From TrEMBL:
The lineage of its organism: Eukaryota, Metazoa, Chordata, Craniata, Vertebrata. This is Leucine-rich repeat-containing protein 14B. Gene3D superfamilies: Ribonuclease Inhibitor (3.80.10.10). It comes from Nyctibius bracteatus. Coiled coil: none annotated. The keyword Transferase does not apply. GO terms for cellular component: cytoplasm. InterPro entries: LRR_dom_sf, LRRC14/PRAME. Belongs to the PRAME family. LRRC14 subfamily. It comes from the Eukaryota. The keyword Ion transport does not apply. Keywords: Leucine-rich repeat, Repeat.
Length: 514
């Protein structure tokens, strides 16, 4: 559906569509029209015009989220367009703003790049994206280039000071560059201000060094994922040595906690970590997937003084005591997003699960129950649990052994949830060979009757259509939901995994030889 444009926006498009004319005429454009022209240029991917608009930006702040978001003149939100042409033009324009020798007073104080959203499908024509990692890389590079130039040519430019708010994404490959940019922040007119920090494929020592450079007192989101070997004792050191007073969201890597090898010292350590989390009064999102926390969820979460809005405890080997704590805790009434994947919930603790959903039903927007061994016999119970969840917008239940018939029954019910927009459902059990075991390993995941699946998917979409629910999207992403950060760095991560596998094989061979 085409979004309505105001006459002003149509005029702005016409103005910027002739790049040469627009660039020559910017000097006579009223300052309050710059935001309008920026959004029109972004929509039309007019990189040169974007560059010159930023280079001559006349206002005090430059907020990408607001500039590209819904506006009166054009309501479509363009903040999910991570168009490489537009973003590179924007950042080089920012560098050239500092170097611009025009006589006007430079007013720009804050640039906010945090409103950019990375999504799977790009609607920009060039189809080339600049993800979070690449934005981190380019901004760091431009800051260092700026410093070299200024030292040689124009020391007076140091009087300019612009805070650049950004979500940093650091891996082994861009680590040195980002460290240099952060170390020289005080000398650079563009001050990198890290609002969110994601670290992947990075040695622990390097992570500890760079996190201190980011100014943790301003950090709102911290993601330590995949190939960062952070264990519980390292996490305790991190929390004991650094304060995160504004932290709202924390993601920890797999196996940060493992209660199966706990000693009395480990129990004290877990208690201390819980207390440190309790000191983070802004913390409302916690992801601790693939940690083994059997019987310890209360110890970790009860010290929190602010209720959690998002909790990911997928594959944490939770037991009945953990589930009972969650259902009865003060977090339950505030959970907007919950991931309980990897737990046999409807077999082992159905009533506790139903109570948890009932408590969170007034706010719950996203529920993920992947690989939970939900079978046909559980569907009525699942429907009962989901019935009060009228705010639910997203429901993911991939990897469960449900038949085509059970899925049709479930979909008929899902149509009644008024806010539900996105459903991720499993390949029906009867599309796989007889005797398939769950959870299905990656090698067998694609070995199903594709023709039969297409037929079932068609029937499910027909159920949505007949219920006038064309607004609902149902899909089966076999290998899980799209992750922009993983997608952007998958080559580096793949190389790291091959290297790790090779090292393990070499150690094994050496041991055998000995």
């Amino acid at each position: 559906r085409a979004t309505m444009k105001s006459l002003r926006f149509i005029s702005a498009e016409a103005f910027v569509s002739n790049a040469e004319f627009a660039r020559k005429s910017l000097g006579s454009v009223a300052h309050n029209l710059f935001p309008l022209l920026f959004k029109a240029s972004y929509l039309l991917e007019q990189g040169e015009v974007i560059h010159d608009l930023v280079k001559n930006w006349p206002l005090v702040d430059f907020n990408m989220g607001k500039l590209l978001g819904t506006t009166m003149d054009y309501q479509e939100d363009l903040s999910h367009r991570t168009c490489s042409v537009c973003l590179e033009s924007c950042l080089t324009g920012l560098r050239d703003y500092v170097l611009n020798h025009h006589p006007y007073v430079k007013r720009l104080k804050v640039v906010d790049l945090t409103g950019i959203k990375d999504v799977e499908v790009q609607s920009c024509e060039c189809k080339k994206t600049m993800g979070r990692w690449a934005r981190t890389q380019l901004l760091s590079k431009l800051c260092l280039e700026l410093l070299v130039y200024l030292k040689q040519c124009n020391p007076g430019t140091f009087e300019i000071s612009i805070d650049v708010l950004i979500d940093l994404f650091v891996t082994e490959r861009n680590y040195d560059l980002v460290v240099q940019a952060l170390l020289k922040k005080c000398c650079c007119p563009l001050k990198i201000c890290c609002v969110a920090f994601r670290s992947d494929n990075l040695a622990l020592q390097k992570f500890f060094y760079i996190i201190k450079l980011t100014d943790p007192s301003l950090l709102r989101k911290l993601e330590i994922v995949h190939n960062v070997r952070l264990e519980m004792e390292h996490l305790e050191i991190l929390f004991n040595s650094i304060c995160f007073p504004l932290l709202m969201s924390l993601t920890l890597p797999a196996r940060t906690f493992n209660v199966r090898r706990f000693t009395a010292t480990d129990e004290r350590m877990l208690t201390n970590i819980g207390e440190k989390l309790g000191e983070m009064t802004q913390l409302t999102e916690l992801s601790i997937s693939f940690s083994i926390l059997t019987g310890r969820i209360q110890k970790l979460l009860s010290p929190l003084k602010t209720p959690l809005k998002m909790l990911d405890v997928s594959n944490c080997s939770l037991n009945h005591a953990d589930m009972a704590y969650l259902a009865n805790s003060f977090h339950a009434n505030h959970l907007e997003a919950l991931d309980l994947s990897g737990h046999n919930i409807l077999d082992l603790y159905p009533s506790t699960f139903t109570k948890l959903l009932s408590c969170s039903s007034s706010v719950l927007r996203s529920l993920t129950l992947e690989d939970c061994n939900i079978q046909d016999t559980h569907v009525n119970m699942l429907v009962l649990g989901l019935s009060p969840c009228h705010k639910l917008q997203e429901f993911k239940f991939l990897g469960n052994p449900l038949s085509s018939q059970a899925l049709k029954h479930l979909f008929t019910f899902l149509c009644e949830l008024p806010m539900l927009k996105n459903v991720e459902f499993p390949v029906p059990r009867d599309c796989y060979p007889v005797g398939i075991t769950y959870p299905i390993d990656d090698a067998s995941l694609c070995r199903f009757d594709h023709q039969k699946y297409e037929s079932v998917a068609k029937d499910l979409n027909l159920i949505l259509l007949q219920a006038n629910r064309e607004d609902m999207k149902a899909s089966t992403p076999l290998f899980g939901s799209y992750d922009a950060a993983v997608q952007e760095t998958n080559n580096e991560l793949g190389a790291y995994l091959i290297k790790s596998f090779k090292e393990t094989l070499e150690k094994f061979t050496t041991s055998l030889t000995k």
